Amino acid sequence: MSSQANKQAFETLVRPHFDRLYRLAFRLTGRTADAEDLFQELLIKAYGKLDDLVAIEEPGSWLSRVMYNLFIDERRRFARRRMHTVEEGFLPVDGIEGFAGTENPEQDQRRLEQLNQLDLALKQLSDEHRLIVLLHDTEGYKLEEIHALMEIPVGTVKSRLHRARARLREILTETGTFS
Amino acid sequence: MNNSNLERQDQEILELLKDYPMPTANAGFYEQALARATHEGSRRQRNRWVMTGFGSAIAAGLVLWFVGATFLATPNLPQPEASIPGITMTLEEPRTVNLVFASAAALEAATLTVTLPDGIELAGFPGQREITWQTSLVEGRNFLPLELIALSSAGGEVLARLEHDDRNRTFRIRVAVS
């Protein structure tokens, strides 16, 4: 294939998965700059493996898995960066600034406060627990998909999800977040 | 706490998690990422100058400087003060600056020397004020990612000097630290 044909083939294969991959990158890293970095590195790596990519039945799953492995390989580096994120998380300017609200400003304000409490609670979970709960309960991944991504048994995914929710419940109870 | 309360709280958590904002990419990011991947992916296959890993990722969100005129094609005149690019760093927070060298021809065994001011370090080279590489350049644009860390608020100028045979070119970047 010519260089231009390679580029077109690559774009056709990867573009349908961009939003989902970007969100995965963000869920893994927790920061826009790092998510962009991880997303970019994935595309560079995937383009280098274009011959493999065209033969893969489910490129979306393959790309997610490659991204996850890239993240794991560079985890120590991200762990160092995340120290800053945790500190920033407790600054009043951080947190969720908006969401799809209703026509009831008071209710929306209350919801925003709850979401900010949830944001802080999520940051207190371990990396694995936070990732699993966000992928399953926010992003809508199935247990099987998380199993394939993280290469851990479905039973382990379930138990970690259960423990993550239980820990969230504890934290949110302590902060008086529930209605 | 009774079971019905726990169930109600679990339900509230699930609803909150569903409302938890979905991150979206900045406008234009996908196009840039795609262009860089196809450009950079091709380059990596033929030129190992750009190292692998996040530290060298040519990514959006990282600073990208097109420094200087084309190497070998123009004389090494001093860089006008007004054209010296500047970045502001946060103390002790790594930041990647991508230098882009345009070369009029492919070059083997070029020498690149990066000189750092006091208080600015290159990641992986603690305490070194001057770091030298032997490298090859392809015709066209060559990327060099530098991951800098500011260890003091003094700032200063980072110099990158590219040499080949008897020719050389020096690029300057002003670094301020907040």
Quick summary:
The complex is a heterodimer of chains A (179) and B (178). Chain A is mostly helical. Chain A has 10 helices and no strands.
Structural class of chain A: mainly alpha
CATH superfamily of chain B: Immunoglobulins
Helix count of chain B, per DSSP? Answer: 2
Please give the radius of gyration of chain B in angstroms: 22 Å
* Secondary-structure element order of chain A, N to C: HHHHHHHHHH
Contiguous uncertain segments of 5+ residues of chain A: 80-97
Structure description:
The complex is a heterodimer of chains A (179) and B (178). By secondary structure, chain A is an all-alpha fold. Chain A has two domains: 1-94, Orthogonal Bundle (Rna Polymerase Sigma Factor, Chain: A); 97-179, Winged helix-like DNA-binding domain superfamily/Winged helix DNA-binding domain (Arc Repressor Mutant, subunit A, Orthogonal Bundle), CATH 1.10.10.10. Chain A contains ten helices and no strands. Mean pLDDT of chain A is 82; it is low at 80-97. Chain B has one domain (47-177): Sandwich (Immunoglobulin-like). In chain B, the strands form two sheets. Chain B has a five-stranded mixed β-sheet, with no helix packed on it. A four-stranded mixed β-sheet of chain B has the order 1-3-7-5, with no helix packed on it. Chain B is elongated, with a radius of gyration of 22 Å. The chains are: A mainly alpha (179), B alpha+beta (178). Chains A and B meet through helix 1, helix 2, helix 3, helix 6 and helix 7 of A and helix 1 and helix 2 of B.
